[in-house]
Specification:
Layout: H1 2-7, E1 34-41, E2 44-51, E3 60-66, H2 79-83, E4 87-92, H3 109-124, E5 128-133, H4 135-146, E6 150-156, H5 163-173, H6 188-199, H7 207-217, H8 226-232, H9 236-241, E7 247-252, H10 257-266, E8 271-275, H11 282-285, H12 287-298
Parallel strand pairs: 3-4, 3-5, 5-6, 6-7, 7-8
Antiparallel strand pairs: 1-2, 2-4
Helix pairs in contact: 3-4, 5-8, 6-7
InterPro entries: AB_hydrolase_1, AB_hydrolase_fold, AB_hydrolase_sf
Domain AB hydrolase-1: 63-291
Signal peptide: 1-25
């Protein structure tokens, strides 16, 4: 069952399912307000969360945040305003996730990225920095290898797998979609989803946080594995080797730590930041520290 496997632990060893959103109040210091907007894209309306500094004149290039499957830009709620003190920061809902329209057919990895970047450059361009997390990191890496509009790149928990592992993971997400068998009439599939989220929660995460997380996972329904499927179809080694822009790879102590290290080794001149003290939910658990690290890299 795709829904159960994706959202209840089937890919937990790859860190795709360790989705966390621990409770944390925003910092006491003044942060830009986050506003919502929609842009037209190749796949319909694209939903954004945007934080703009009080004085954005002469600010650094905008930073685009690309989320993990099968969540949305909501996963950056704590990080977004903290990061936006000296630049515009945009959290995008990947087409088919959150509040962005779903494509009629599953896009390729490049298709997802191009649809988002084309819309964003039209509004915020001509140069954008990009940060991607998990599936979002795969999209960010692909864009950096092909698109001149991408300036600097941050890859967090990079899903870089060899062919054997990709084949194994694709077997779990690559079969035809059907609502029949994906859901149980008594709702027991939600119990598996709950247990997967509750079991990987970060310190301080409340039951309400877990409930919101499980609700977010359900938004894409039986299409929730699409972006992950598109990422796994690609051998990312040539993509990573082709990146010429400055790259920072952040490797928290999660199920993709070794994969992140391997990816960094393939990218010419890439820098790597190890976070051994934090695993999942880092954008909620340490947004201030993470913003400091990312800002220092982007400002070089």
């Amino acid at each position: 069952m795709i829904t159960r496997r994706l959202f209840a632990g089937g890919l937990a060893s790859a860190s795709f399912l360790a989705l966390t959103s621990p409770a944390r109040a925003l910092p006491e210091t003044a942060c830009p307000a986050v506003r919502r907007m929609y842009l037209d894209s190749a796949f319909g309306q694209l939903h954004l969360r945007v934080a703009t500094p009080d004085n954005s004149a002469g600010a650094a290039p905008p930073l685009v945040l690309l989320h993990q499957t099968a969540l949305s830009g909501r996963m950056f709620d704590q990080f977004l305003p903290v990061m936006a003190t000296d630049r515009i920061v945009i959290a995008v809902d990947t087409p088919g996730y959150g509040e962005s329209d779903r494509p009629a057919e599953r896009p390729t990895l490049a298709g997802y990225g191009d649809a988002m970047l084309d819309a964003l450059v039209g509004k915020f361009g001509p140069k954008l920095d990009v940060l991607g997390y998990h599936t979002g990191a795969a999209i960010a890496a692909d864009l950096a290898s092909r698109r001149a509009e991408v300036d600097r790149v941050v890859l967090v928990s990079m899903p870089y797998f060899d062919e054997t592992r990709r084949t194994d993971l694709l077997a779990q997400v690559g079969r035809p979609l059907s609502a029949e068998g994906e859901y149980s009439e008594d709702g027991s599939h939600l119990v598996s989803m709950w247990k997967g989220s509750f079991g990987s929660r970060a310190d301080g995460q409340s039951l309400d946080d877990v409930a919101r997380l499980v609700a977010e996972k359900q938004r894409a329904g039986i299409y929730g594995g699409w972006a992950l499927h598109s990422a796994l179809e690609n051998d990312l080694a040539p993509t990573l080797s082709a990146i010429e822009e400055p790259v920072l790879v952040i490797a928290p102590h999660d199920g993709l730590q070794e994969q992140s290290r391997a990816a960094a080794a393939l990218i010419p001149g890439a820098k790597i930041e190890e976070l051994p003290e934090v695993a999942y939910g880092l954008f909620d658990a340490i947004p201030d520290r993470l913003a400091e690290t990312v800002r220092a890299f982007l400002s070089r």
